[in-house]
Design a protein that fits this description.
By secondary structure, the chain is an alpha/beta fold. Helices cover 52% and strands 12% of the residues. It has two domains: 5-166, NAD(P)-binding Rossmann-like Domain (Rossmann fold, 3-Layer(aba) Sandwich); 177-248, ProC C-terminal domain-like (ProC C-terminal domain-like fold, Orthogonal Bundle). The chain has helices at residues 12-23, 38-48, 56-59, 75-83, 104-110, 143-154, 167-175, 177-194, 199-219, 224-231, 237-247, 250-275, 288-291; strands spanning 5-8, 31-34, 51-53, 65-68, 94-97, 117-121, 131-137, 157-161. 36% of the residues are buried. Bound molecules: NADPH dihydro-nicotinamide-adenine-dinucleotide phosphate and (2S)-3,4-dihydro-2H-pyrrole-2-carboxylic acid. Keywords: Amino-acid biosynthesis, Cytoplasm, NADP, Oxidoreductase, Proline biosynthesis. Belongs to the pyrroline-5-carboxylate reductase family.
Length: 292
């Protein structure tokens, strides 16, 4: 992995990618972060010893892969700067967006004609090399560029290649999914405290339970239904708890949450367009849903 990689946006997901790539053995000298916040830049330099620049044009020079990890509203500004940077023809730079809700067509329309673009939906467990990343190649991405992107992302977790029309659904399950589990764990800890445990006790019990349950799910080869049945004794404690979850409509709540998430993702490009974050990069805009 000697290809130079630039990460535009050193926030939560940009840092997760940076940390994951470094811990997977990517030499720090082959990485550069472009970050506009001076405080954030200083943190990244201190924590990772990585080069951090506030100049996109300078920093992406010589990079084979340019990850974009800014909020959707900041994408057009980044694209405007990227569109006037020279791509060394031999390098065949590929732009890889980690941004929710913005279709590859928007990048392709804003960058130089024929620029290869790949859209990715990662998640924050990338920080501990356990990401789930979904990858959708844009229309000009070559197979070797997709393979390189997949290889980089595989060094920080699992990768699934999906058609771009599935990206809103992917965002609703794996992209935002970690937050659903953190909310569940928060609620479990609060319940433990209500039952008389100290907060540290409840926290240790809940966190290890989620970790163990996650490992069982990924390593046992059993389905969630089978694993749940194995915990649930007839007329026992678990059955009593699960009955309350069903009565409170947990499945319905999860379904509604996922649909709300996917809807926001599908409407992101249009929202950014209407709210006018971009500075003139408005060509060829369509939402992910419109692409289907
Ligand atoms: N967080 C998550 O779990 C996931 C996030 N994503 C996607 O990743 C993207 C980033 O999210 P997240 O990391 O949470 O956001 P953050 O706000 O934490 O990070 C974005 C960073 O980019 C910086 N930035 C903005 N514009 C520029 C620019 N022109 N040049 C350089 N740096 C810039 C921001 O600086 P400043 O603060 O000054 O604006 C900020 O530090 C989003 O599009 C999101 O959809 C995808 C999957 C999961
Ligand atoms: O909340 C968000 O918009 C981003 C995208 C997926 C996870 N976080």
């Amino acid at each position: 992995m000697t290809e130079r990689v630039a990460i535009i946006g050193g926030g939560k997901i940009g840092e997760a990618l940076l940390a994951g790539l470094i811990s997977a053995g990517k030499p720090v000298k082959d990485l550069v972060v472009i970050e506009r916040s001076p405080e954030r830049s200083a943190e990244l330099v201190d924590d990772y010893g990585v080069r951090v620049s506030d100049d996109i044009t300078d920093a992406v020079e010589g990079a084979r892969v340019v990850f974009i990890a800014v909020k959707p509203d900041a994408v057009d500004t980044v694209l405007q700067k990227l569109s006037v940077t020279d791509d060394d023809g031999e390098l065949e730079r590929v732009t890889v967006s980690l941004v929710a809700g913005i279709p590859t067509s928007r990048y392709e329309a804003a960058l130089q004609a024929g620029s290869p673009v790949i859209r990715v939906m990662p998640n924050t467990p990338m920080l501990v090399n356990e990401a789930m990343s979904a990858v959708s190649p844009g229309r000009y991405a070559e197979d070797d560029q997709v393979a390189l992107t997949v290889r980089l992302l595989e060094s920080v977790g699992k990768v699934m290649v999906v058609p771009e029309k599935q990206m809103d659904a992917v965002t609703a399950i794996s992209g935002s999914g970690p937050a659903y589990f953190f909310l569940m764990v928060e609620a479990m800890i609060d319940a433990g405290v209500a039952l008389g445990l100290t907060r540290p006790q409840a926290s240790e019990l809940a966190v290890q339970t989620v970790k163990g349950a996650g490992l069982l799910l990924s390593e046992s080869g059993l389905s969630p239904v089978e694993l749940r049945a194995a915990v649930t004794s007839p007329a026992g404690t678990t059955a009593a708890a699960l009955r309350e979850f069903e009565r409170a409509g947990l499945r319905h709540a999860v379904n509604e949450a996922a649909f709300a998430c996917a809807e926001v993702s599908a409407k992101t490009a249009r929202r950014v367009e209407v709210e006018g974050s971009g500075q003139g990069v408005q060509r060829g805009v369509e939402t992910a849903s419109e692409q289907q």
